[in-house]
Amino acid sequence: MWPRIKPILSKLLLLLSLVAFLILGESHFTVQPAWAEIRQIEETPGQLLYQSQHSLRDQTGYSWQVVLFKQVKDSTVTGVNLRLVGFPGVADFSHPKPLQIKIDTGEIFTAEDEFADKSPAPNVGQYDFKSVLLKLPMSQRTVLLLPLAEDRTIALPIPPSIILEWQTLAQN
């Protein structure tokens, strides 16, 4: 009798082990949500800087530092800007060209170049995002079209979660 029960028990034990593994080990296979970090910095008394910083990759695989920041002086918003920093020597911005922001519907928004006169470095671009940001939909794909030297353009996709974070930063 034992030889007939042994295979059944071993299959049952294997099945129970798999079920326990799936239930207990499921958290290791799911993607954990990324929590936004909006930093607040007091630059001078009465002047605050709020910023959201991310590292994103363009369609060619290069990494970009993407920083949206809001400046507030005496409870008045003085600016909402998007700063983009590429790897030195790989991508130089074409100043004073505006940044184009394209959404899935094909609509294109533009943000004016804040470094039109002088950039701190060729690989740094900064754009006035105050009038554009709240127009961007959170339910559609958003792509920044970075104006680079030699009439090149690089597409940098921005996830909806980051658009939401930026809009939260701008409204609060």
Automatic annotation (TrEMBL):
Pfam families the record matches: DUF3122 (PF11320)
InterPro entries: DUF3122
Domain of life: Bacteria
Protein name in UniProt: DUF3122 domain-containing protein
